[in-house]
Amino acid sequence: MRKIAILFSLLLFGAQPAAAESSPQLGDLERNLNSLVSRSSADVGVAVLDLRTGQSVSVRGARRYPMASTVKIAVAAAYLSQVEHGRRTLDHRIGGQSAALLMERMITKSDNPSTDLLLRDLGGPDAIQEWLDSNKISNIRIDRTIAQLLRAKRDLWDDRDSATPLAMVQLLQRLHDGKLLQPEGRDHLFGLMRRCTTGKNRMKALLPWGTPVEHKTGTLNGLTGDVGFITMPDGRRLAVAFFARGGSDRPRTIAEAARAVYDGFYRWIWSPGSAAPTAG
Questions:
Q1: What confidence tens digit (pLDDT) does each residue in 130-139 have?
Q2: Is 173 helix (H, G, I), strand (E, B) or coil?
Q3: Which helix (H) or strand (E) holds 165?
Q4: How far is CA 170 from each of CA 24, 85, 126, 184, 206, rounded to the nearest angstrom?
Q5: Which of 37, 159, 230, 250 has the fewest Cβ atoms surrounding its Cβ within 10 A?
Q6: What is the pTM for the complete model shown?
Q7: Which residues 6+ apart lie within 8 Å of 193 measured at CB?
Q8: Which of 229, 232, 239 minimizes the C-alpha distance to 268?
Q9: Do 57 and 46 touch, CB atoms closer than 8 A?
């Protein structure tokens, strides 16, 4: 029945990504990312969306990758949606701890037991999937708790608990635009993502010092991911998703891809043919 429901959802809502594969204005960046990906021993997928202009870049953006702990963004957003509808509160006690503390540990430290406590309280993975489907977020599939995922035999090509980079960017875009959460809930989630302590060797590693980043990492044996927002010097925010599967030195590859994205947008923003950048 679950497979039928997912198929019906895709037919009803469509499976359109948040943005086109790549914008012509960012051709140089797309070529740089393609070159970086082709040199890597890992299977790397990248999606980027300028939330101010809609300009986008994607390399293997429609390919599915295991989400690992990047799924925790969806778990937090689904819980905060329940808070907004008056069905739960952040003071609600779950397993003897407040939902607020569990969510903080889940996002900032990627704590797995905290995630599964929140998941259980919400009704399990099916409840998160239903929330995504009801909000027309496609190409994200949630099947198992974190404990179940970690106990299972590792298959990095399993469609279960997977997403495309474009789908993750779509989720981030909808959160940023206030389509999924009201400003208070959205800002609470983004504040936690800003304080994420994991993955310092990933998208943040090679960015210029002080670049604002809000993100959530994901890690499995053979899989490294990092998704979130990078804010450029003129204030525009980029929604980004990086996944690297197999191969070696995956964190470094993500770090290099994030720097390539930053440099590519920086050159485009300040190129002679572009409109003058504005703060905001």
A1: 999 999 999 9
A2: helix
A3: helix 165-176
A4: 20, 23, 20, 20, 25
A5: 159
A6: 0.90
A7: 73, 107, 214, 215, 216, 228, 229
A8: 232
A9: yes
